[in-house]
Amino acid sequence: MAAVQVSESDQIKQFKEFLGTYNKVTENCFMDCVKDFTTREVKAEESSCSESCLQKYLKMTQRISMRFQEYHIQQNEALAAKAGLLGQPR
């Protein structure tokens, strides 16, 4: 079985999308969690908030991905049923 080849331009595009998402999440969590700029130290509350923010984002992304896959499976099954490929008595 042949491996799927991804072109270099597609790899660059995917990496740019990843970086854009990473930057957005980083900025959102920073803006929500970091409040004290009077010291260079990261306070425990800021660190905990940042970790929770990232975990929430990752869980949300995973859940959306699962729902997206479920939706596509349902759509494919509906198309197959409409085409008469599923549910026919033998």
TrEMBL record:
The twin CX3C motif contains 4 conserved Cys residues that form 2 disulfide bonds in the mitochondrial intermembrane space. It comes from the Eukaryota. Belongs to the small Tim family. GO terms for biological process: protein insertion into mitochondrial inner membrane; protein transport. Residues 10-70 form the Tim10-like domain. The keyword Zinc applies. This is Mitochondrial import inner membrane translocase subunit. Keywords: Chaperone, Disulfide bond, Membrane, Metal-binding, Mitochondrion, Mitochondrion inner membrane, Protein transport, Translocation, Transport, Zinc. It is a peripheral membrane protein. It comes from Lates japonicus (Japanese lates). Mitochondrial intermembrane chaperone that participates in the import and insertion of multi-pass transmembrane proteins into the mitochondrial inner membrane. May also be required for the transfer of beta-barrel precursors from the TOM complex to the sorting and assembly machinery (SAM complex) of the outer membrane. Acts as a chaperone-like protein that protects the hydrophobic precursors from aggregation and guide them through the mitochondrial intermembrane space. Mitochondrial intermembrane chaperone that participates in the import and insertion of some multi-pass transmembrane proteins into the mitochondrial inner membrane. Also required for the transfer of beta-barrel precursors from the TOM complex to the sorting and assembly machinery (SAM complex) of the outer membrane. Acts as a chaperone-like protein that protects the hydrophobic precursors from aggregation and guide them through the mitochondrial intermembrane space. InterPro entries: Mito_inner_translocase_sub (IPR050673), Tim10-like (IPR004217), Tim10-like_dom_sf (IPR035427). It is found in: Mitochondrion inner membrane. GO terms for cellular component: mitochondrial inner membrane; mitochondrial intermembrane space chaperone complex. Pfam families: zf-Tim10_DDP.
